[in-house]
Amino acid sequence: MKTLLYIILLSFSLYGFVLPPNNSCDSPSAIAELNVNNVKAKVLTGGDLWWDRSNGSYNVPKDDPNGVSALFAGGLWIAGVDPGGNLKIAAQTYGAANGSNEFWAGPLDPNTGTTDFDLCGNFDRFWEVDITEINAHIEDFNDNGVIDDPIPVSIRSWPGRENPNFSQLFGWTLPSQRLAPFVDINGDGIYNPMDGDYPKIKGDHAIWWVMNDEGGGNMHPGTQGQPIQIEIHAMAYACSSPGTAMDNTTFYEFTYINRAFEDLNDTQISLWVDPDLGCYLDDFMGSNPEHKMAIVYNQDSVDGEPGSDCPGGVPSYGSDIPMLGIKVLDGAYNHLGQDVGFSSFMSFTSGANGPPSTSDPNIAAEYYNYMRGVWRDGTPLTQGGTGYNPGSIDMVSHAFPDSPNDPNGWSMCTENLPALDRRILINSGPFNLSAQGGEATITYAVVTQLSVDYPCPNYETLLQLGEEIEGTCDGITPVQSIKIDQTNISVIPNPMNDFSKVKIDGENELISELEVFNSNGTLVSTYSNVNSSEITINKNGLPSGVYYLKILTKSNQFFSKRIVIL
After folding, report:
1. CATH of the domain at 544
2. Would the pLDDT of 52 be above 70?
3. DSSP per residue, 205-245
């Protein structure tokens, strides 16, 4: 019900429609899911996050039987001023659900700052890879300087510069420009897995994609603003570390590259979030500037209306309600070298809830005001109440910066604000992006505390969780070698007639999964959920030839074995 209402309102707000140019990009449609540890989180190729363009899809804990979501949606905002004083902006909210896009899939041509229909369509996808695949590839190369085993598709298809496998795998040519990051073993500037090159990811499991706001000449109907010609390289990732804060944490890195021929000055980059911690009608928001964290918690000890109901059948957390923080890990720096990654924090309401100047923006200037840490009408954010106090001179940069359990602090809880549907904006800036290549990278961590005492919770534990994850997943790159002993794996008989037994000899070690590849690197058979030290593999009609076994153990180590089928 909530999403349908937003889409209807957006549809009526689009006026002055102009037909797009002939070579304009189609609306992006690809969706992927980061599914690691205790979180499932959807990402999309149109500058939006954490929903399926209908319902919220940031599920923590991910095995909740009702599919309750801690976030309804997120979106990337960027704006700045060109040397002529013109405001340029791209800010995605709910519009992608009905074709009102501010971002499209794919990179921009570094020489022209433009894209086209085919390029956007080709890049309307994600590239996903796991650290176990990378480490097995590294080990294969390290043992003799040659790749002997079949290369996983995730590594062969990685969109690193001039990947020679790309056209064969996808049927189109990869642009010769900087795209997905990779480790270049021989330093030739070309991504070639046969040379030992591999994806340079963060975390243990990563998803990479690329977006732009030019769209083949498309306009920006949501903000009614001028396009920037910005290119965004995105990576969502997570680290597997059972029993730690990582269990309930995901990470998002965004690199913004100015492909325009003009500088973008006074640039602001923002992460817009519609939290909806379960039910959307009783969320409170706050911030902690010292820890560079925005925080979402529940108004009281029951999520939703009495009886844990939420209008429209939206799943709620009932009485077991978490608290969620979005922490800025790596922020942009201005020309003085100052960290402006969490320069301001705003919280505003949906529709007609409250004064008009504290609700959703409609035009580019109003979006930019919120991004600069002032209200929609330009009124400064000031201490007390909702933060909207015309005439007050007690100006601040971060709304609700105190813990709700502090009776003398400024929080939504101590102000006893009404239950409303609210948004937040995590702002970074201002700084300048130089023409044709100026860039800024910002990384966010979404951290969840599952056990929380309500009402008016204490932030202390959540802030400690934020400290615990800082520096432990961000910036991780694959190890150069895995200490494994191939003699611990036996395949008998080899060659195989009808079947063979694969056995692992190691203390407390089990086979988790086994995959069979033919000599062309094609996966021909999979044995999942083995959980045993021994497994029987069958010929199952496979033709005679040389095959390779990829064996994953419970300790996340890969073994590779060659087998001949008669």
Report:
1. 2.60.40.3080
2. yes
3. EEEEEEEES-TTT--BTTTTBB---EEEEEEEEE---TTSG
